[in-house]
Specification:
This protein is 62% helix and 11% strand. It is of the alpha/beta class. It has two domains: 266 residues, no CATH class; 91 residues, Orthogonal Bundle (Arc Repressor Mutant, subunit A). The protein has a four-stranded mixed β-sheet with strand order 1-2-4-3. Strands 5-7-6 form a three-stranded antiparallel β-sheet. It is globular and about 65 Å long. The two termini are 26 Å apart. 33% of the residues are buried.
Length: 375
């Protein structure tokens, strides 16, 4: 064991419940419920009955007008932040957990121009070079007229293409957009979230205690095998928020602020169902499903040649960076990928031993045979 890495992880990683994250995730899950169901089916995850009851309660409590407003800001893609990005930026640039009321207060004190410029970043964060056309983001984001011109001339990635016209509307009316945003947060919080927040917190904190104990038992193994990330990335303070609403999630957010780097990991309460040991049959079914999409096979064949970073994969396969993230998550669930950092880039690495093992397990389940020799 690398004692220096062990101590670094213990020093920099903590676990804490962040109520504001659950509020944001609740609104996103409600707006993208059909996408959530599709992902659950893809990954063979059965949604928590309590989460279903929570979303059903929201449907009953929210008016048609409010639902349309929620869809306007949140409906675009569950895996790609868009017009909801200012909420994430507001939460994840703060090192301490926030309540729902704290988040609303921070948005109240945020200039309308900042909110809509962060919406632009949310929609174009994986296509900034095309958007900026050589301009400096730090300067352009303060000039809404210029920003509107650039957005008008640049189509976003396909996953969030439908956010283009709403984004132009927000840029044209920043003060009105801020008022709508705040009303959305306040109303969802008081009409829906407030009735569920204590139960959500209780479930999330129980799971957090379980994962924290696992982390403390072996920090490096937890980061590599459960969080599926490179321990060397955690060279600054990062807080794990274990989320009931997200169910299964493994997002890593980090921001540079005036106070230094701030990092948060969103970790689902049921991650152990996916990343823990699965029954042989379920693992084989997921392994076979992985190759029902030719792009995932192309993904693995590309990595068989050598490790690649995300943009390389997107270019080689003719897909978007968001699609790379989607397919890599699927392969991570099967332990087929590792990540390594080289020169500030994260490279995907194929775990050939795991691939051989899954092929052997498939033969055993399909043919009722003994596992094939691995070598």
């Amino acid at each position: 064991m690398d004692n220096s890495m062990h101590e670094t992880l213990l020093r920099n990683i903590s676990f804490a419940y962040n109520e504001a994250i659950e509020l944001i995730f609740s609104m996103g899950m409600f707006a993208c419920e059909d996408q959530m169901a599709g992902l659950a089916d893809d990954y063979k995850i059965e949604a928590d009955e309590l989460l279903g009851a929570y979303l059903e309660d929201a449907r009953k409590l929210l008016s048609p007008y409010f639902t349309r407003e929620l869809l306007f800001f949140f409906r675009y893609d569950l895996l790609h932040n868009a017009l909801d990005f200012p909420l994430y930026e507001s939460v994840f640039t703060h090192a301490e957990p926030l309540t729902a009321e704290d988040l609303i207060h921070r948005l109240e004190n945020s200039p309308a121009e900042h909110i809509v410029s962060e919406m632009v970043y949310g929609v174009y964060h994986d296509n900034m070079e095309a958007l900026l056309q050589g301009n400096n983001w730090e300067l352009v984001k303060k000039d809404l007229k210029k920003l509107c011109e650039l957005v008008t001339a640049t189509k976003p990635q396909p996953e969030v293409a439908e956010a283009h016209e709403p984004l132009l509307e927000c840029l044209a009316f920043p003060q009105e957009t801020k008022l709508r945003y705040l009303q959305l947060l306040r109303q969802f919080n008081q009409d829906v979230f407030v009735h569920w927040k204590d139960r959500i917190r209780e479930i999330s904190e129980q799971a957090s205690l379980r994962y924290k104990a696992e982390f403390l038992g072996n920090p490096e193994v937890f980061i590599r095998e459960v969080h599926k990330n490179e321990p060397a990335l955690f060279d600054f303070p990062v807080t794990f928020h274990v989320s009931f609403v997200a169910q299964v999630a493994n997002g890593f957010y980090n921001f540079h602020t005036d106070a230094g780097r701030v990092g948060w990991v969103i970790f689902g309460i049921h991650n152990d169902r996916v990343f823990g040991p699965n029954a042989d049959r379920e693992k084989v079914e997921l392994f076979l499903k992985a190759f029902s999409d030719k792009r995932r096979l192309d993904f693995l064949l590309l990595l068989k040649q050598r490790p690649h970073y995300g943009q390389e994969i997107a270019t080689a396969l003719g897909i978007t960076p968001a699609a790379v993230k989607y397919h890599s998550n699927f392969l991570f669930f099967l332990d087929l990928l590792d990540v390594e950092r080289v020169d500030h880039r994260l490279y995907y690495v194929l775990r050939t031993d795991t691939l051989r093992g899954l092929m052997a397990l498939t033969a055993k389940v399909m043919l009722n045979d003994e596992p094939l020799m691995q070598g």
